[in-house]
């Protein structure tokens, strides 16, 4: 079964690379401007390990309770947190995540900063935590993300929190909106952010169904689950 699954994932990964390369070419961008982030939520650690063996370094989870054990089993990956995160999970998340893409409040940034400092002091991690601001493109707080009008203030706050490195912005296109329009708006937010924070150049946008539109509008990181791994399976134990 492992050999068959490896072949499935290798084919999916090759097809995804072709899609990204084609989208970059159409947008007049170099292929190496866009990272592929494999979202392994609900899939077993064995799939994550196969993806790493196939050359995919960056993997992501959206639930801490699933990610922690999986990251221990697959230490060769660079793990990212992409889901909504509560402050009381900060201490756990910083033990496995190299980057948190879903920071949407100053209080969460503070919690992550404290937790990262404690983890470094305890020898549980070596580096500061990279973070992205999750931007709400439709202003609906139920979907997570900080309103566009508050991004600048949150960015300034993050840069004054010890142990955090602001890398850019992340967003999900609202389901009822045309993705290209949403990603164009995120590109404007990113451009404004870089005026004061030039190192915050990452734009995490685009998933299995809309990554081409995201790349057209400057995404530097696409988050892909279904197109790589297939329909959602059972969570790893």
Automatic annotation (TrEMBL):
<dbReference type="InterPro" id="IPR029066">
    <property type="entry name" value="PLP-binding_barrel"/>
</dbReference>
<comment type="function">
    <text>Pyridoxal 5'-phosphate (PLP)-binding protein, which is involved in PLP homeostasis.</text>
</comment>
<feature type="domain" description="Alanine racemase N-terminal">
    <location>
        <begin position="13"/>
        <end position="232"/>
    </location>
</feature>
<keyword id="KW-0663">Pyridoxal phosphate</keyword>
<dbReference type="InterPro" id="IPR001608">
    <property type="entry name" value="Ala_racemase_N"/>
</dbReference>
<comment type="similarity">
    <text>Belongs to the pyridoxal phosphate-binding protein YggS/PROSC family.</text>
</comment>
<feature type="modified residue" description="N6-(pyridoxal phosphate)lysine">
    <location>
        <position position="41"/>
    </location>
</feature>
<dbReference type="Pfam" id="PF01168">
    <property type="entry name" value="Ala_racemase_N"/>
</dbReference>
<protein>
    <recommendedName>
        <fullName>Pyridoxal phosphate homeostasis protein</fullName>
    </recommendedName>
</protein>
<dbReference type="InterPro" id="IPR011078">
    <property type="entry name" value="PyrdxlP_homeostasis"/>
</dbReference>
């Amino acid at each position: 079964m492992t050999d068959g699954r490896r072949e499935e994932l290798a084919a999916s990964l090759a097809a995804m690379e072709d899609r990204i390369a084609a989208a970059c070419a159409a947008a007049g961008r170099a292929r190496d401007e866009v990272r592929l982030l494999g979202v392994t939520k609900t899939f077993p650690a064995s799939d994550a390990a196969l993806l790493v063996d196939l050359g995919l370094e960056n993997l992501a989870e959206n639930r801490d309770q699933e990610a922690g054990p999986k990251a221990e089993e697959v230490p060769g990956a660079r793990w990212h947190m992409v889901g909504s995160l509560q402050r009381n999970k900060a201490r756990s998340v910083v033990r496995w995540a190299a980057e948190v893409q879903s920071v949407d409040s100053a209080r969460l940034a503070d919690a992550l900063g404290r937790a990262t400092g404690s983890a470094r002091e305890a020898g549980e991690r070596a580096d500061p935590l990279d973070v992205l601001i999750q931007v709400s493109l439709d202003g609906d707080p139920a979907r997570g993300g900080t309103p566009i009008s508050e991004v600048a203030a949150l960015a300034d706050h993050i840069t004054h929190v010890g142990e955090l490195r602001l890398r850019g912005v992340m967003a999900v296109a609202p389901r009822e909106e045309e993705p290209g329009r949403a990603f164009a708006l995120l590109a404007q937010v990113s451009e404004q952010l870089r005026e004061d924070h030039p190192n915050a150049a990452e734009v995490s946008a685009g998933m299995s169904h809309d990554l081409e539109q995201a790349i057209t509008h400057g995404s530097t990181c696409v988050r892909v689950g279904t197109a790589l791994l297939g329909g959602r399976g059972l969570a790893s134990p």
